[in-house]
Amino acid sequence: MNRILLLPGDGIGPEVIAETRRVLGWFAQNRNMSFDIEEDLVGGVSFETYGTPATDAMMAKALAADAILFGAVGGPQWDPLPFAQKPERGLLRLRKDLELFANLRPALCFDALKDASTLKPEIVSGLDILIVRELTGGVYFGEPKETTTLANGEKRAVDTQVYTTSEIERIARVAFELARLRDKRVVSAEKSNVMVTGVLWREVVTRVHKAEYSDVALSHILADNLAMQLVRNPKQFDVIVTDNLFGDVLSDEAAQLTGSIGMLPSASLGAKDAKTGRQPALYEPIHGSAPDIAGKGLANPIACILSLAMCLRYSFGRIDDAKLLETAVERVLAEGYRTADIMQPGMTKLGTQEMASTVLKALDALAAG
Ligand code: NAD
Q1: Which residues line ligand 1 (CB under 6 A)?
Q2: Average pLDDT of every residue of the chain
Q3: How many C-beta neighbours within 10 Å does residue 40 have?
Q4: pTM
């Protein structure tokens, strides 16, 4: 029995999670899988109900789940709230308490959407890269992190970039393990020319590679060069591993290569328990709560549906089923079905529910052979 916690959240979150739940139902019915599904509140809607964006009861369910499917949180009505009560704190608490240190963001360009990219179709057609970003260390969390006032009245702000050997080792291992399931190539990005954390990063990744993963090809690149290469020739990459700050920027850049934010899934993984093999995991579309289209049935559910495909692959080891779902999405796009955000001339425009129903029909057709 696979225990899944659904956390729809705010805005379009509940709309895309409801459709993804139908897809989950399809796998339960047709692929001999059983799920124990729970659902709870997170973000702004949790604040409205309980006065906090993440209750202890929800966190207990999250800790017990094999996988979490998360929608999105946030909205303008909660912007004035103090930091600790903001909807985003719900997601940050999940990441922190579950120690989700590895963020996986695939940038995959479906052939049918190659014209939607701002880059030339031949540059992005067939693109399939995976960015592995360290999520719980680095400059976003390093101490000191402070603003002080100097004697002359001027202000001085400090953030601190910190990495330890073990933090780098564990993210490197995640990248190498994932590369083994793909094209067996890892590029590690840092700024070892100007940062000591970059020097340590390069040393540790090289050592882990040599000792444990010599079957995978490893190369190193400076993060600024990587930013350039991603728009020049992104298809040269397979798996990219990098720190929290560079990963934040570079994964957004890679997302843009593929056209729409409504298409991109992500996963955040914790450490695998050596005894039980359990690994905390949270899957979510990379988009936010899209308050501008919430409640209108316009949201593209594909990013969330593809997050479920990642969940099938990484949490449940169902690689064939993950591929089946990705193929169903590919087929729907190839047949010309689009939500408003990816609409092109001559295509058929669908709403949120209709798009999910079309994916379900494609799954039926594929399963029937
Ligand atoms: P957003 O991703 O919500 O929306 C950006 C634009 O993309 C909007 O025009 C929106 O309509 C469109 N869009 C996003 N997802 C779409 C989908 N599935 N289908 C069709 N169109 C889609 O980003 P934003 O507007 O900067 O943020 C809105 C709220 O979401 C804010 O409160 C922000 O803090 C929050 N946010 C949450 C997360 C998260 O929960 N992980 C991530 C980013 C932003």
Answers
A1: 12, 72-75, 88, 91, 261-262, 284, 287-293, 299-300, 303, 341
A2: 95
A3: 18
A4: 0.91
